[in-house]
Amino acid sequence: MHDTALAVDATLWLNSFSQALERRDIPGALTLFAQDCYWRDMVAFTWNVKTTEGKPDIAAMLTATLEHTAPCKWQLGQVSGSRSGTIEAWFTFQTSAGHGEGIFRIENGVCVSILTTLQSLHGHAEPLGAARPKGVRHGADRNRETWSEQRSRQEAAFDNGEDPYCLIIGGGQGGIMLGARLKQLGVPTIIVEKNPKAGDSWRNRYRSLVLHDPVWYDHLPYIPFPEHWPVFTPKDKMGDWLEMYVKVMELTYWGGTECISASFDEAEKRWIVHLQRDGKAITLRPTQLVFATGAYGPPKFIELPGADQFAGEILHSSRYRDGADYAGKNCIVIGAASSGHDVAVDLWEAGAEVTMVQRSPTTVVRSQTQLDLAFDIYSQVATENGIDVDRADMIAAATPFGLQPPVQRELTERIKARDADFYEKLAATGFQLDFGEDETGLMMKAYRTGSGYYVDVGASQLIIDGAIKVKSGIAIDSLTRTGMRFADGTIVPADVIIQSTGFQSMHEVVAGIVDRATADAIGPCWGLGSGTRNDPGPWQGELRNMYKPTAQEALWFQGGNLALSRFFSKFLALQIKARMEGISTPVYQTPF
Ligand SMILES: Cc1cc2nc3c(=O)[nH]c(=O)nc-3n(C[C@H](O)[C@H](O)[C@H](O)COP(=O)(O)OP(=O)(O)OC[C@H]3O[C@@H](n4cnc5c(N)ncnc54)[C@H](O)[C@@H]3O)c2cc1C
């Protein structure tokens, strides 16, 4: 279709839609949707991260939210079309609370999906661009306070016991990005981190780790990586970037500070949080508490019968640092996902004898294939075509999770066809491959369980060559003094066993810091309720408990890879800011 024709169709649809909403005519608005339809909302209508699916659910959502949201001033932005006949159109709008932006997709004149996002709050826009701070007060002033004096004064206030409005537990990338968003919104925030310095969460990982995702996908808000930045960031370089970022974004970041416990004072509507800062006990009373304690929670160990008689060392991959300690030794890596593969390569490079124990099939995608086929909107070409990371994030978000499986299945087909030879050789070693039980591949595994996949950056060839041995599909029987016995009677000698067995849900950290009852009331984090292995239903439509209100008032979760933390930190920050400003935030369908 010609561009003008696309724009006409998009204009007609948006006009009819916005007029129906302004008339509060929900049945009228629903006639503009296809039978199978999705409305994904980031805080604009629902004060939640919420996808409603199908006309009855959308009707229920609008019935509950339309009156107080009072959307208006809809304006069409860029419109484009695909060969399949889908029209994709950007738009802006206003609500009673703020300014919004979205994308709708129409087919045959009716909407198949719409994304609405709150971008800023009325009267509380971030001081950006023309609104940036002046940075100087010209004229003579005997009481002049310089920038660094002002910074020191602000930091000293917190040091001297002033309570922040928001306390973020965990100063990895997730806590840092949220801290930066809150800083820009003027929300007094302290980030507490038990490691001494920002960036240590990456530095402390094994020595050979390099990010698996390309630079275009990894930018932090406000300060994108420069043009010369490598495609794949080595972990210590990432650590340095985070440390620089904390400083330049002027975040209040308390390294060497561990959160020991927290309880919610119902009467005061504040948290009482006990910290150990450089060995000294401190109590803070923030209004909002964010757990940014690690994307996937505490390490998960598996029971190894006979562990008490094993003479060697057993550790979790999160404690593994450097293969040099194991040169010439027999090493068993339990687990065949990202960390398992990376640890196995690190050990092999150090000259260890490595056996990987695979307990369930793994989705493997070669890094270059992933780069070529899966990151089209996060790439150099996209950047040169004007799709910056914020735009790419919106485009990605415009496909709700419910519509992802067919897209991902099609991608899986292309990946399998392109690398058929590679997969054949890998399978021939006995390594068990899968692409998810519904063939939706790596990305859906990442959202559903955050586990069971590997972006191949070299380990697979070592497995094909037999340099890393694989024990697959044979149960571990028990440990002997010097090795691991399997159900088929074979024994693999071992000096060290590294459990690359993943992590528990983030809500387990809440059990340790708040209490078991609160953690159980909140329930697990992450996962979509897809009904596939380790992601039990019911279907949620969004990641459980992440970036949105939970069953515990004023308790939030932030985390995930760089891209998810970047995108969702904006909406979590707006939710917190709105509460600080006393803006009404009626949450549609809470909690989960
Ligand atoms: C091999 C591997 C490759 C990866 N590749 C990529 C990639 O390419 N791109 C990508 O985006 N992601 C990648 N990730 C995944 C993901 O981005 C990281 O796991 C990331 O570190 C998650 O960030 P986070 O801030 O949620 O958690 P973390 O980085 O784990 O930070 C949490 C912080 O909380 C602190 N903390 C915990 N409890 C307390 C407490 N009680 N008090 C104070 N502080 C506390 C911890 O010390 C830690 O620093 C990779 C991960 C691995 C293992």
Question: Which ligands occur here?
Answer: flavin-adenine dinucleotide
Which fold name is given in CATH as the topology of the largest domain? FAD/NAD(P)-binding domain
* Superfamily (CATH H level) name of the largest domain: FAD/NAD(P)-binding domain
Strand order of the largest sheet: 2-1-6-5-4-3
The CATH class of the largest domain: Alpha Beta
Our measurement of the CA-to-CA distance between the termini, rounded to an integer number of angstroms, reads 42 Å
Global structural class: alpha/beta
Sheet-strand content, in percent, reads: 15-25%
Report the CATH architecture of the largest domain: 3-Layer(bba) Sandwich
What is the percent of helical residues? Answer: 25-40%
Total individual domains: 3
GO molecular function, one term: monooxygenase activity
Protein name: FAD-dependent oxidoreductase
Organism: Devosia limi DSM 17137
Region (Disordered): 128-155
Give structural notes.
It is a single chain. With 592 residues, the protein is an alpha/beta fold. It has 3 domains: 2-121, Roll (Nuclear Transport Factor 2, Chain: A), CATH 3.10.450; 152-297 and 504-580, FAD/NAD(P)-binding domain (3-Layer(bba) Sandwich), CATH 3.50.50.60; 301-501, FAD/NAD(P)-binding domain, CATH 3.50.50. It is 32% helix and 23% strand. The strands form 6 sheets. The chain has a 6-stranded mixed beta sheet, sandwiched between helices. Strands 9-8-7-13-24 form a 5-stranded parallel beta sheet, covered by helices on one side. It is globular and about 75 Å long. It starts with a helix and ends in a 12-residue tail after the last helix. Bound molecules: flavin-adenine dinucleotide (FAD). The site of flavin-adenine dinucleotide (FAD) has 29 residues, from helix 5, strand 10 and helix 9. This is FAD-dependent oxidoreductase. GO terms for molecular function: flavin adenine dinucleotide binding; monooxygenase activity. InterPro entries: Auxin_biosynth/cation_transpt, FAD/NAD-bd_sf, NTF2-like_dom_sf. Residues 138-155 have a biased composition (Basic and acidic residues).
